[in-house]
Amino acid sequence: MPLKKSELYASLWKSCDELRGGMDASQYKDYVLVLLFVKYVTDKAERSPDSLIEVPYGGSFRDMILAKGDKEIGDKLNKIIRNLAEANDLTGVIDVADFNDADKLGRGKEMVDRLTKLIGIFEGLDFTSNRADGDDLLGDAYEYLMRHFATESGKSKGQFYTPAEVSQVIAKVIGIAQAKNASQTIYDPTCGSGSLLLKAAAEARTGVTIYGQEMDNATAALAEMNMILHNNETAEIWQDNTLSSPHWINTDGGLKTFDYVVANPPFSTKAWSNGFDPSHDLYGRFEDGIPPAKNGDYAFLLHILKSMKSSGKGAVILPHGVLFRGGAEGGIRKNLIQRGVIQGIIGLPANLFYGTGIPACIIVLDKAHATGRKGIFLIDAAKGFQKDGNKNRLRQRDIHKIVDAFARQSDIPGYARMVSHAEIASNDYNLNLPRYIDSSTPEDLQDIAAHLEGGIPDRDVEAMGDYWAILPGLKDSLFTPLREGYSQVKVEPSQVRSTIFEHPEFEAFSQTIHALFEDWRGMVNPTLKAITPEVHPKALMETLGESLLATFKPSALVDPYAIYQHLMTYWVETMQDDVYLLIDDGWKASPELIPEDLVIHRYFPQDQEAIDALEAERDVCSRELEELEEEHGGEDGLLSEAKTDKGKLSKVSMSARLNDIRRDKEAAEEKKLLEQVLSTLEKASKAGKAVKEAQKILSATVSKQYGQLDSQAVKHLVVEDKWLTRLAEDVQAELDRVSQALTGRVKELAERYATPLPKLLEEVDALSAKVDAHLQQMGFVWQ
After folding, report:
1. Residue 315 forms beta bridges with which residues?
2. Any idea where the domains of the chain sit in the sequence?
3. Which keywords does the record carry (predicted)?
4. Rounded to the nearest 5°, which phi and psi values hold at 420?
5. pLDDT digit string (tens) for 6-17?
6. pTM of the prediction?
7. Which residues of 265-402 form beta strands (DSSP E)?
8. Torsion angle, CA of 288/166/154/210, rounded to 10 degrees?
9. What phi, psi does 380 have (nearest 5°)?
10. CB 529 within 8 A of CB 719
11. Whole-angstrom distance, CA of residue 743 vs CA of residue 481
């Protein structure tokens, strides 16, 4: 059976995590990822004789398999890895972890068992047969493990990984897709495990030349392995402190400059100037000012600027404090704004990153157009995310919205706007986003006059103007004027939803949205049915997503990014695995690709209806039994004596009770009830057996049907009945969301002002009078 991406990733993590024991995830990752690396290069060398990685004798994953169960397994693994490292100039990269460390891996048999099982996990994976090579299956598995290790490593140890979603945003906003050839360069001065660098480089259609530097030795090793796993064997990663010892230097002694620079440096590091004197910097990085001695945020930003070519573009992730802190940082910020090198700022949600929970921002840098720049484009994307365990995570819709807004550079109320340098100067060069973008939710004001006199304020009705622009007649069906400035709802609150759903304008609106989906369905249907082994799943998904978004962009009320997210979510949940199965196996029918219920719905609906009828009969009997037991099964009920020791009713216990009372003339009612229960039990049993037998027959029929499905039938079932039907349901869900939001608001306003205060007081007085009267009847007087 071909490999499923989701199953591969999940089983890898689950299996490896089970063997971790008490070891910290930040340490354990060094063992797991090295094994993944050795497995990958061994498989690749067997598949591709021209692989850039040489797998020497005594340095392959096959040698690791031979070491399973050996009492010297730890030492043997070290030697195997060392042989592979020495053959490829990877010493100090893949041989960092000690596989013979008893303190981490256990002693004696414990170590042997743990390492043997760990090798076994990877031994069972076969990547050589996967045809979707352009999708970096192993590299993606590496990324998956890195994300999970970062999650498990805690605040102080998870900084080696930049969330892939943030990397996607950066990759797109720096414009690397416009790179003209592979000789153009990209650089990350604090590259961590290389995740950000790789995401940015992957955006370049022509490829680019990759450079990186990372201070931590083990993390730099992860980056080098990550590059190789993502088919970037020529990438150059250097291990050292970027600020004190930058490695990439020109022949004239100055910093090497790059076409693109990206970075996610450690936030607000205190010891940033250790090892050099910023006031006498050899590379002239601090001409715009020297950052505070105990906060290195601007030190990294200035290093990035100095590392950019005069036509270069860059982006750096920094905490929000860089936007508004004063002192030395305020002076640097003013100089950078006046120089025009800041193209934009993107405010991100809090708790995205593994090293910190504080909100951060992306500062987009552009030297090419700095001279003529008159403003900075600001985006406040802090509210666009989903919860993901104990972290927040950007959805694909959030990413696309950010990238679209940045590309258009047009104002979006509450979200984005171009702010002139003059306006920024008038705010003393403070770039705190709330000064320029009000993203707060408008306060829902209470109207005192409406509470006193009744009616709904017209301003609240007009605030739903987006709906009335498309559904003007619906407004008149829901509201009618009451007095100047106030209206009232014409229907009962319970009828608001049906009034909306059944209104001709809403029906026409729904038909318009469904028509858009049908247009898209017709456009992508041939593409989906033409999936072959040559198709690259990620490219396919991008094409589908972009066309869907473009189709729904003109729609009103329905958020096109929400529709787009449905597709992205379904891709991850189902379509991705399906496409990989199709690439590997072709259009062949299988339960993994076509669930049984789809085959039944298409070919055997009457059989299913018959089973449904049998199940309904069985359920009627079950409900009848429940009712009888509830009514008569109590401590003094007629069925109390027929229960087992565990308080249950059974055929045996009831038959025994019947036998006990068969000659008792006073137990006629009990006997009648017991006979009724036994009869119902018998019916329920027969119905249950009939259901099981019918299901067994239908299942066998469906299994036979799989073998009779040709490729055209499979295409119809997968594309039409499975994929597109599900997405059509998602579109309907968005229509339902629109109607529910409008229904909820109308009912909220109607109920808020339903009873004016004077009437409430009258009702209170009436109730008080009733209470007083009751008290007087009981001989009490309320003072």
Report:
1. 262, 364
2. 1-153, 602-706, 755-783
3. Methyltransferase, Transferase
4. -70, 155
5. 677 777 777 777
6. 0.86
7. 308-319, 342-347, 360-366, 375-380, 386-388, 391-393
8. -70
9. -110, 95
10. yes
11. 19
